[in-house]
Amino acid sequence: MFSLTQRAQYIGNYAMTIGLVLIALIISSSHLDFFQKDILRHTKASIGQIKPIVGFRTSRFYGASNGKPKENTRIAFDLNTDLSGLFNWNTKQVFVYLTAEYNNTEKGTLNEVTFWDGIIKDAEHAVIDLKNTRSKYSVWDYVGDLSGKDLQFKLHWNIQPHIGPLMYGVAEGNDMIVTIPEPEKK
Amino acid sequence: MNIRAELAKFLNLCFVFSSAYMFWQTYSIVADTHSPIVVVLSGSMEPAFQRGDILFLWNRNKYSNVGDIVVYEVEDKQIPIVHRVLREHHSVKDNGKQLLLTKGDNNAGNDIPLYAGKKTYLNKNKDIVGTVKGYLPQLGYVTIWVAENKYAKFALLGFLAITSLLGDE
Asked: How far apart are CA A159 and CA A18, in angstroms?
């Protein structure tokens, strides 16, 4: 009565329907969990003790062109945050990153740059307590210098799910504003 | 052999392919990108994305944010690259252009060595194919298998031929 292809087709369709229902359940239940925990408001961070270190680099890979030295800024900073609320059954990893926003009024640009980032794979490692840590990246402005600019530091997070949409947010806390000093002239 | 039945079967096949094509094109228009679904080809974003993962893109945003995972194409190279935005600089003027610097989570340094020529930034409007919004693990591995294994294509064609031969209702 049933041919081989009909059976295969039936099993295939059935498996696909069950798969889609399961995916929908996983995504909606994990969003409900995040909504109940109110992660957008209850994820907090304190950033402090930001010490800028300003210098010069001559490589093209650090913003210099034609061998002219380019001003580069690193920072040392303290960071304390608990991101364990961002983990549930559908969290594959959390990407956490420390950025600074600034306004270049002479050139008329708005900018945001990353100084430090990290990957957290499970809730057991979600409490971050850094003291006097050096930034991962050496940062330069693409047209001018960072010195004299007011940098507003923020800690962002990004939840990478096992399946479904990616989620982003900013940790609540003290928004540190730091003015980058002039570099020591060589 | 019933020619009418064979033709009906052929028509059915055409219907399947054309609806898949229509879905793709509609999604392209809605998301404003020429390839709205991409399969991850490299491990440079591990552990977030592995080879074979499927990504759903969206390209109607005016500016990218730092931390967004974007897909970009380097001039003259057809391979799309999926990396995270490390820095963004945009003009305060309306519709001012935006420059982006990207980096793979699993790479030690930023992407400047990957960019075309002497470029040190990407242009949001010209280079970005889309921003990753949704994620489906592993299911795209079939396409990598077919593209990289020379016997896979024959296996797939053979399978299709056998099923169509066996498929007499």
From this structure: 26
pLDDT digits (tens, 9 = 90+) for B110-149: 999 999 888 899 999 999 999 999 999 999 988 888 888 8
Instruction: Please judge whether A6 and B88 are an interchain contact, meaning their C-beta atoms are less than 8 angstroms apart.
Output: no
Assess if residue A184 is contained within a domain.
no
Tell me if residue A146 falls in helix, strand or coil: coil
In B, what residues contact A, Cβ < 8 A? 47-48, 65-69, 84, 86-93, 96, 99, 105, 109-110, 112-113, 118, 120-121, 132-137, 163, 166-169
The answer to whether A158 contacts chain B (CB < 8 Å) is: yes
Query: Cβ–Cβ of A109/B91 closer than 8 Å?
Result: yes
* CATH code at B3-166: 2.10.109.10
**What is the ipTM, given to two decimal places?**
0.90
Report the number of distinct structural domains present in chain A: 2
What residue type is A146 in one-letter code?
Answer: L
pLDDT digits (tens, 9 = 90+) for A120-136: 999 999 999 999 999 99
The angle that helices B150-166 and A4-37 make with each other, rounded to 10 degrees, is: 120
